[in-house]
Amino acid sequence: MAAPSEEEGAVGRRYHQRSTAMLDVPFLPFCAFLGTLGLLCVAMVGSWCQHWRGGFSLDGSSRTFNWHPVLMVTGLVVLYGAAALVYRIPYTWSGPKLPWKVLHGSLALGAFILTVLGLLAVFYFHNSQGTPNMYSLHSWMGLGTVLLFSCQWAAGFGAFLLPWAPTWLRVLYKPIHVFFGSTILLLSVASCVSGINEKLFFSLKNGTMQYKLLPAEAVFANTLGLLILIFGVLVVAALARPSWKRPDSDSPDSRQPLLAAER
Amino acid sequence: MAAPSEEEGAVGRRYHQRSTAMLDVPFLPFCAFLGTLGLLCVAMVGSWCQHWRGGFSLDGSSRTFNWHPVLMVTGLVVLYGAAALVYRIPYTWSGPKLPWKVLHGSLALGAFILTVLGLLAVFYFHNSQGTPNMYSLHSWMGLGTVLLFSCQWAAGFGAFLLPWAPTWLRVLYKPIHVFFGSTILLLSVASCVSGINEKLFFSLKNGTMQYKLLPAEAVFANTLGLLILIFGVLVVAALARPSWKRPDSDSPDSRQPLLAAER
């Protein structure tokens, strides 16, 4: 096959530029849409537990369990997604990177704290009811996701915010951190979806309220599950989009730790 | 902040080269590992249905249902994953792209046919038993995934194999096709995991076989679910790895359709 002529190459580049321009979506409106979708997921999971599942308490009953889905969706999906998107905000691209690193780490820490509280809620409920913990595939996947998240946070803090990590280690670890950032979010989403599915089979058993008769609660919670899926996929799409990435990711400032080491 | 000196820039590049070299994993051994993992998933889902769920038949009983998990894991996860990885095989990088396009499309078509047979199995089982279809979140997500997959296959065939799509449309659509390629695989994996979780709650109800007592079947099927998750994440990681991508993705040959249009 003949090599492409210069003219063919120019045509290809022109097509590429034109099609890239056609696909251009401004980040901030997309981000506002994502924020609205995330808040809708939080509002829906709260409404589901409040309206259909008896509300919230700390007495070890199923009303204690209800904190579990609310805290997991809020922490491990929505707040985690917000933390992941920090470096895609164009304001973060100029000036020192350190404040944005601290914001990224703090949002992720907030997400982690909500996640741990969400785990405590379900363990406390199980122990109060004499139900075994950690037997379903949902629980195995969910706990695996939280363990990965804790490693991700600790390794990110150690590599990017503390001063002792050598530069080669930061450069080596960064693509791993970025990859696991998206992966953990998708595992969180998969955990939430399997958890909602499981909860509906547990709760909707009797008479006209059977899950298979698709009562209003089932439609509502299934829709919530799909919205969580869409949120997760859109956040990962935003993270993967080349034109939304911080352009100067290799500047010396990007390696600035929280505490400067003595030199 | 001072701009990086030339020396600092050189140090950064050296670190980057060294750390990239440290992360280098050869594609073919990784691919062999992925193939083994995929075959293990197929063998395990088959063994689960054969050994614990009564085997296979076409009589509308739960033995008809058993085709559903086997066909979905084989088609929508493992064969789909193989189709997605075709362009990462270094042999495909030189010479005409068309045979690889045909292989990619054929493997994806095979995956789609197994998937449709898997859907038929569960619909036939439900209809034979008088159980409603499409009520659970698993079914909503699963059918959504299959619909996305059918659009992906049809759009890919129309844009990349038929001669009528203009070049600008191919250039515009390619990143969308690539993004949905990974997304559909992860949705498939999430669907499989929620389905295995659901099936275990349905099947393990009585006496010492209750799911919450974690009998051998539950450990086996939970492990299968985790292996499916790991397979999906590793395929997506392989697809995302820059050094494993076909380098000349913009060559004129990459736009060669199956049937050449009259010029």
TrEMBL record, chains A, B:
Membrane topology: Multi-pass membrane protein
Domain Cytochrome b561, first and last residues per copy: 33-240
Gene3D superfamilies: 1.20.120.1770
Pfam families from the UniProt entry: Cytochrom_B561 (PF03188)
Transmembrane segments: 27-49, 70-90, 102-125, 137-164, 176-197, 218-240
Catalytic activity: Fe(3+)(out) + L-ascorbate(in) = monodehydro-L-ascorbate radical(in) + Fe(2+)(out) + H(+)
Cell compartment(s), UniProt: Late endosome membrane; Lysosome membrane
Cofactor(s) of this protein: heme b
Keywords, comma-separated and alphabetical: Electron transport, Endosome, Glycoprotein, Heme, Iron, Lysosome, Membrane, Metal-binding, Oxidoreductase, Translocase, Transmembrane, Transmembrane helix, Transport
Protein name (database record): Lysosomal membrane ascorbate-dependent ferrireductase CYB561A3
Native organism: Taeniopygia guttata
